[in-house]
Known about the structure:
Phosphatase, globular, Rossmann fold, nine-stranded mixed sheet, alpha/beta, 11 strands
Amino acid sequence: MTRPSSPPSSRPSSPPSPASPSRAELREHLVRTAIAGDVATSRENNLDHYRSLALRDPHYLFGLTFEGEWSYDDVLRLMADRAGVAADPGHREGQDTIDPERTIDAVEEMGDRVAKVLRRGSARIVVATGHPTGLLTVHLALARFAAENGATLLSPAEGWGYVGGLGRRRRIRYLDGVAMLEDRGTFVHTHDPHPMRAMLAEERPDLVIADHGWAGAAGEAGIETVGFADSNDPALFVGEAEGKIAVSVPLDDNVLPRHYAPLTSYLIARIARSL
Length: 275
């Protein structure tokens, strides 16, 4: 299914927000709110996930397959390079970090990628999130901006369901163009790639904006995919390193939703300047 959208000739209808922060202001905000800098995700949790990916635990692969060996040491080196976590393998517990400069660099690259797709005209886009308590606010704003600037927001496999953990039935449901998993009326956090696979079996978009398994499954299917990933989500960064994910933005993916507003304004302003 598709949602009606404004014609490409109406672009750009959403000018950059005057409230968009400067790069320096955004950096300060990211550190102050722990979206980047010293983040809540612990070193122990990060390293546990890196080991799990190296062991090819499906829960941590997000629907991706990899050509490289990607040992634990390889994953740690990659995450130090792409996300800015501590590179020292001897640092095994306590605080870990995300480099705010890497976050902003990736936000800018994401903005350029989204703008390039929108400039083609009649872009067909899927937006999805496994973070209804955190990143949903960012995805809603991106979906709205894309639709206002000529894109068609696709809604394939709406209502498609499967039995997930603990035998509970989960279904795809859309909120203002953003796909999420619903469980008995509640949007739920998920790493699962199966919903995106069901969506792509019905309709293939030009671009996917997502996170977790929604992004991983899209990248694995060869769809241009940009997304957000925490420091304990190494699969999307490995996917980026192997060319399956176009951009992975490193950030804490579950701070208070209002804290993402400056990042969202900066990202949308970047897209708008490139249209």
